[in-house]
Design brief:
The protein contains two helices and eight strands. It is an alpha/beta fold and 117 residues long. The protein has one domain: Roll (2,3-Dihydroxybiphenyl 1,2-Dioxygenase, domain 1), CATH 3.10.180.10. Strand 2 and strand 3 form a beta hairpin. The relative contact order is 0.21.
């Protein structure tokens, strides 16, 4: 039985600022219930649950593989959400990646595989 998809479930602190943040990244809100949000962009879904403890989102995150890393990186630079230690770079594990912090403190890593020359 093959696995088909993994969907991160991250924590959020305040609904409207979280909705605004993810929509600024091009995500569409597909679910909004008491204490729970679902966002999607292309084939990626991110779920978020509401919590009161700010340390939880500061200690969670996810990794998203993308096809056009430069376009997304430029968008995130314009939004001012690139992590101070997460600028675009080639990692020794063969990924070109960068990292952002969402408005709650969750870290999201975006990467694309680099084909050997």
């Amino acid at each position: 039985m093959p696995l088909l998809q993994a969907i991160p479930i991250l924590a959020f602190l305040e609904k409207e600022t979280t909705r605004s943040f993810y929509q600024s990244l091009g995500f569409t809100c597909h679910g909004d219930w008491e204490g729970y949000l679902i966002f999607a962009r292309d084939a990626v879904e991110i779920h978020l649950w509401q919590c009161d403890d700010a340390s939880i989102p500061r200690n969670t995150g996810c990794y998203v593989r993308v096809s056009d890393i430069m376009a997304l990186y430029e968008q995130c630079i314009e939004l001012g959400c690139v992590h101070p230690n997460g600028e675009l770079e080639l990692k020794h594990w063969g990924m070109r990646q960068f990292s952002i912090l969402d408005n709650n403190g969750n870290i999201l890593h975006f990467g694309t595989p680099v084909t050997p020359a």
